[in-house]
Design a protein that fits this description.
The chain is mostly helical. Helix content is about 60%, strand content about 5%. The protein has one domain. Keywords: Cell membrane, Membrane, Transferase, Transmembrane, Transmembrane helix.
Length: about 260
C-alpha cells in the first residue's frame, strides 16, 4: 500500500497521578538536559576542569533557558496579549516558549558565568556548551511533535502528518521532525569536531558551526511552517526568520575569526 500521509493522534500526556501530569514534552525536555549534563561532564573531565564549574554552569543554563524562552515568547510573539495580562506570563504550564529567547537568555547567563566563575572568555564556554545544547534542541522539537504543535503548511508528500488533535483534516509538513533532524546533524558535527579535531583550540569555531547549523536550518524550514501568531501574516519573513538572521551572521563571523587566527 502506498503511504499518502500519517495520521497523528498521540496523547501528549503519558499519565497523571492526581494533580501531577507527566507529559512527553516535559520528559523529553528533562532528558535533553540530563544527557547534556553527561556530555559536558565528559568534556570538562577530559580537560581537567573542576566539577564546581560544571554544577554552576548547569544551574545557570537551566534557569536561563526556561526564563529566556518564556520571555522570548512573551515579547516576540505575544506582547499584545501579555501586556494586558501580566499575571499570565508566569503560566509556563499553559505553553509558550521561544527558542530564540532561550538562546538570548543563555548568552546573558554565560556572560555573567564567565565573569564570576571561570574568569575565562565567554566564547570558551560556548564552544563547549553548544555541543549538548544541540542535542537538547533535538529532544525539544520531538516534544513539540508529541504536543502536535509548531507544524507546517499543507502538503501532499507521503510523510505529511494529519494532526488530528488540532482538528486538522489534511496532511501538514512535520516541521518538528525537519528541525529535529537538522539539529541532530548539527549535534553530530560539533560533537565530532570537538573530540576528533583541534577545533576547540580555535576559539569560536565550534560555536560558529553551531549557530549556522541551528539557525540557518530554522530560517529555511520556516518557509514551510505555519505562522505562530496572526501578526506574521503578510510578512515576507516571519518573526522566527528575522530572529535567526543575526545568529547566522554571528556564526559566519566567529568561524572566519577562528580560521583567520
Amino acid at each position: 500500500m502506498i503511504l499518502n500521509s500519517i495520521n497523528w493522534n498521540v496523547d501528549p500526556e503519558i499519565f497523571s497521578l492526581g494533580p501531577i501530569h507527566v507529559r512527553y514534552y516535559g520528559l523529553l525536555f528533562a532528558m535533553g538536559f540530563m544527557l547534556g549534563y553527561y556530555i559536558i561532564e565528559r568534556m570538562f573531565k577530559s580537560e581537567g576542569i573542576q566539577q564546581e564549574w560544571l554544577d554552576k554552569l548547569f544551574m545557570y543554563v537551566v534557569i536561563a533557558t526556561i526564563v529566556g524562552a518564556r520571555l522570548g515568547h512573551v515579547i516576540f510573539y505575544g506582547w499584545d496579549y501579555y501586556s494586558q495580562n501580566l499575571g499570565d506570563i508566569i503560566k509556563i504550564w499553559e505553553g509558550g516558549l521561544a527558542s530564540h529567547g532561550g538562546a538570548i537568555g543563555i548568552l546573558v547567563a554565560l556572560y555573567y558565568y564567565s565573569k564570576k566563575v571561570t574568569k575565562r572568555s565567554m566564547i570558551w564556554t560556548l564552544d563547549r556548551l553548544v555541543v549538548p545544547v544541540a542535542l537538547a534542541a533535538v529532544f525539544i522539537r520531538l516534544g513539540n511533535l508529541m504536543n502536535s504543535e509548531i507544524y507546517g503548511h499543507a502538503t501532499d508528500l507521503p510523510w505529511g502528518f494529519v494532526f488530528e488533535r488540532r482538528g486538522e483534516e489534511v496532511a501538514k509538513h512535520p516541521t518538528q521532525l525537519y528541525e529535529a533532524i537538522c539539529y541532530l546533524i548539527t549535534f553530530i558535527t560539533v560533537f565530532f569536531t570537538y573530540w576528533k579535531t583541534k577545533a576547540k583550540e580555535k576559539q569560536g569555531l565550534i560555536f560558529g558551526i553551531f549557530l549556522i547549523g541551528i539557525f540557518a536550518s530554522r530560517f529555511f524550514i520556516e518557509f514551510v511552517k505555519e505562522n505562530q501568531e496572526a501578526f506574521e501574516e503578510g510578512m515576507t519573513f516571519n518573526m522566527g526568520q528575522l530572529l535567526s538572521v543575526p545568529f547566522v551572521i554571528a556564526g559566519i563571523y566567529y568561524i572566519y575569526k577562528a580560521l583567520k587566527k
